[in-house]
Amino acid sequence: MVTRVKTSAELFNAAVGRQLRAEIAAAGSSIAAMARDAGVARSALDNYVTGKRAIPVPVVYTVCAIINVAPHLVLARAEERLSADIASAPATITPLHRRPDVAPLGQDVPEVAFGSPLPHDRDTDDLYS
């Protein structure tokens, strides 16, 4: 199974979402009530605060205005949250196994891109480069 590594932008978006959720809860509201007050769908706000969707800047500003918290404070707290998460997360190292069809280190084996039965002067591959 291959796991896609999240970009730094995706990680920050998720941290902002978690921080918004915490700020909404600290203000004594719920996601459903905040969605109604902000004029966005509850499912959309839930996707934003869980990091499933990118949070539009106007939504951040609207929620911050409703809970009376400056948007730059939410972003700064999210940055602190992300830094703490990154510092505490152990690195995952995946061992790479040598492929059997690749020559071992130090063994120089001539390679051919493909086996053509035509002599080089009659091979038309070079005509198209």
Describe the structure.
- The longest helix is centred in the first third of the chain and has 19 residues, at 8-26.
- Helices cover 50% and strands 0% of the residues.
- The radius of gyration is 27 Å and the shape is elongated.
- It has helices at residues 8-26, 31-38, 42-49, 57-67, 71-88.
- The chain has five helices and no strands.
- With 129 residues, it is mostly helical.
- It has a domain at 8-84: Orthogonal Bundle (434 Repressor (Amino-terminal Domain)).
- The model has no long low-confidence stretch (mean pLDDT 83).
- Residues 119-129 have a biased composition (Basic and acidic residues).
- Residues 20-74 form the HTH cro/C1-type domain.
- Residues 97-129 are annotated as: Disordered.
- This is XRE family transcriptional regulator.
- InterPro entries: Cro/C1-type_HTH (IPR001387), Lambda_DNA-bd_dom_sf (IPR010982).
> Care to count the β-strands?
0
Name the CATH architecture of the domain at 8-84: Orthogonal Bundle
The whole-number mean of residue pLDDT values reads 83
CATH class of the domain at 8-84: Mainly Alpha
Shape: elongated
Separate helix tally: 5
Order of helices and strands: HHHHH
Radius of gyration: 27 Å
Please name the CATH topology of the domain at 8-84. Answer: 434 Repressor (Amino-terminal Domain)
Beta-strand percent range = under 5%
Per CATH, the superfamily of the domain at 8-84 is lambda repressor-like DNA-binding domains
Broad structural category: mainly alpha
Termini, distance in Å? 38 Å
Q: Major sheet, described briefly?
A: none
The helix content is 40-55%
Oligomer state equals single chain
Q: Give unreliable regions as ranges.
A: none
